Amino acid sequence: MEDADNDLMIVEPSSSSKSTENKFQPFGSRTPHDSSLLRYCQYQELLEKANDDNVIDCTEEEELVAVPQSVAAPATMPAAGEETLPRTQTLKDRFQIYKDNFISKFLPKNAERCEKLTPAILRRCRYILQGPANEVLSTKFNLNITRSQLSCLISGHWLNDQVINIFMGLVRERGQLNSRLPRTHAMSSFFATRLLNGGFAAVRRWTRTVDLFKMDLILVPFNEKSLHWCLAIIDMRTQRISYYNSLNGGNLPFLQALAIYLASESMDKLKVPFNSSSWRLVNVAGLPKQSNGQDCGVFTCMYAEHVARGQPINFTQRDMLYFRHKMLLEICDGKLWQ
C-alpha cells in the first residue's frame, strides 16, 4: 500500500494569490442582500399587479413607502424651478425609481444572472418559505428537508448538510437519467470526516449498493474543520482526484486519503489491487472565489453541478443570489433545471 501511495503524481498550483486572511465576514452575519432582497420582493410584487395603463394616485404616506428613504422627497418645499417627482405615477415608474436608486446600491454591477430573478421565481420562493418552520417541503433520497432547513438558501446564510446532500443527490440522479452526461455518484457530506477520523473501516459499508469503479465521477463534499465547504472530485476517466476550494486553498492530505480509500475499496469490493501509478492529485487553481463568509456551500454545489454537466466553471460571486433561489426551487421540484 505504501508503495502505491508513493507513485501518486501530486500537482500543486503556484502560490501567487494574495492572502485572504481577515477579508471575510463571520459566518451567519447579515449581508446587504438580506434587506435589499426583502425590498426587492416587495416591489416585484407591486410590479406584478401593475398593467401599463394602471395609474394610481399616490398619497404622501404611500410615496414614502414606495420610494426608499434615501431618495424620498424632502419635507421642505422645493425651490422655484426645481424638478419634483410627479404626484401621479404608474407602479412601473415607482419600481424603476426604486431599482435605479436602491437596488443598484446592493446588487453588483453587471450581475447578469441576478437579472434572471424573475417575478415568477421570486413569487414562488416567497410562497415556499411561508408556513410552519418544521413542515417538510421535500422528500428525496430518503431525506426530508423542512422549511427551516431550506430557508438558509434565501437568508444568505451558510448551507447546512441537508441542503448539500439533497442537491448533490440531484446532480447524481441527473447523471443516471441522462446517458449523455457522466455517470456520477455523490458521497454524503459526512463521508469525508468519517473517513479521515476512522479510516476505511468506518465507511466500508457506505458503498455496498454501488460500484464506484463503474462511475465516471465521484463527488465528495467536505466540511473542512466544520467551518468551510469544499469539494473533491474523483474522475475515473482521467484518473485524477481534484480539490475545489472557493478560497483557493489546497488540501493534499485529504486527496491522499481519498487515493488510499480507492485502493482499499478496490481490494474489498473487487479483490483487485489498485494501480495508482498514473493517478494525479490536483489542488485546482484559478477557480471563482467567494468574497464573503457564507457562500462556500453554494460555490461547492455549483462546482459539482458544472463539472458533472461538462460545463466550464465560469460563474462568479455576483451569481450567488440567483443560484440560491434556483437551488431552492430545484430542491422543492426534486430535479435540476438543466
Automatic annotation (TrEMBL):
**Which GO CC annotations does the UniProt entry carry?**
nucleus
Biological process terms in GO annotation: protein desumoylation; proteolysis; regulation of macromolecule metabolic process; regulation of primary metabolic process
Q: Domain of life, per the record?
A: Eukaryota
Region ranges (Disordered): 1-32
Q: Give GO terms: molecular function aspect only.
A: deSUMOylase activity
Regions of biased composition (Polar residues) lie at 13-23
Task: List keywords of the entry alphabetically.
Answer: Hydrolase, Protease, Thiol protease
Q: Which Gene3D superfamilies match?
A: Adenoviral Proteinase, Chain A (3.40.395.10)
Domain Ubiquitin-like protease family profile: residue ranges: 143-307
Q: Of which family is this protein a member? A: Belongs to the peptidase C48 family.
Q: What is this protein called?
A: Sentrin-specific protease 1-like
